[in-house]
Amino acid sequence: MGFWDSMMGFFWSDVSFPLLVMVLCIAFVLLHFRHEDRASLFNTVSFFFICLFGQFFSALLHALEFQRAADVTHEIFVIGAGIAVIRLWGLLVFRIVLPAIRLKPPRITEDIFVIVAYMAWFMVRLRYAGLDLGSILATSAMITAVVAFAMQDTLGNILGGLALQLDNSIEVGDWIKVDDLSGRVVDIRWRSTLVETRNWETVVFPNSQLMKNKFMVLGRRSDQPVQWRRWVWFDVGLDVAPARVMSTVEDSILQTEIANVAKNPAPNCVLMNLDGKGYARYALRYWLTDLAADDPTDGLLRWHIMAALQRAGIKLAVEEQNIHLTKENEKYDEMVRQREVQLRVKTLRRVELFSQLNEVELRGLAERLRYSPFARGNVITRQGDERSHWLYIIINGEAEVYVDLPNGKRRMVRSLNRGSFFGEMGLMTGAPRSASVIAKTDVECYRIDKDVVEELLHARPGIAEEVSHILVTRRAELDEAMQNPDATGSHKDLSQQRSEILATIKRFFSLG
Question: Domain Cyclic nucleotide-binding: where (predicted)?
């Protein structure tokens, strides 16, 4: 046999070509579907070809009749090539095949199976090399016992990691709390579990610590979506009935779409304690759907609570202090109040309904306006509501007017900005709200209630006639904006409409 034939016969076997094709195919599939594993794939394939070259070198030694060196070198590189092939199969099965059938085992599971396969391949090759596996196993058992005794902590961490994975105590993506520290699990390794906190800290927990001590998995409940109950605390004076406080807060929150707040279970407000300092402690309980957004969502709900209580005329309780006021302070407060009244009068002059009022009447009305803030997303008025007999004037922010159509859809009619007013028909006639108004941004309003206007009309009944003209015009504008078919020909004439609205106003306010 010639030199070349001897070398190729030792290097190239019947399985060499299929093995090479298999490696290239697996590498191509992984490169196409797993771009993030490109570095690991490149290293594994490079190691395979290095082992292939090593086998070629052993064949060269065989042809040169260095038989012992050739056999040892060949066996070493065959084992190495097998390790590379096992690694490629591990990547293919655990990174592509199992996720394709919706199975996502943790990385530690992949490592275990690959290592077991490495050991099995190594033992098989030793058997082919003619070594006695029985004596090797007996010797390795003694070595294993010594190593296990010396590495108790490390083995405890490894076994703890396996136990955490096998019983699904925690999974990557879970939020856990250990003592006073909470964060999201980002990786479960052989020795430790990595947890990222909201403060951009990565905490390394030894697996044995998690197995020995108590920890909480936040937001997880059997057969339920991930959500975590949170508490937002606030205090109100004892002079306000608890039922009124709780209904005010709950109505505002339930009618508003707030990001990361679950609809089911619904948020609820409860009276938690009666403090000896003269106030009651309440809590709004809600379920958070994004556990990373706890503080921002708490803060947003506090603003909604504060705005709802201010609209209802309910003050948050604050610590009482005795303050000695001087005459200068009293003068300053009066100056601030007069300045605020002037601003309100200026705002009222822009409202058509009150264009006929004199300066005295405007000032009297301005002093009785109610400040009403709304948080973004609050429903300011709801279409069809028959109880809201008041008018709003926007002083800051932006709102949008919506109508609910018969087909169940909602359509935006127009936007309202600073200086806009709405609710005049409900205020003057008691008619149900014809549209919904929702705060697009944080909105500040002045509110005028029915009893304020009622006193004004009883003092000057003639104002009602002027108001009826304005209401007819405003209704026509709204019908046109809503593309109401009644606005295009089937309306009664304007004089008849004014007469009917005037009669409604007199009946609503009991005018003679």
Answer: 353-457
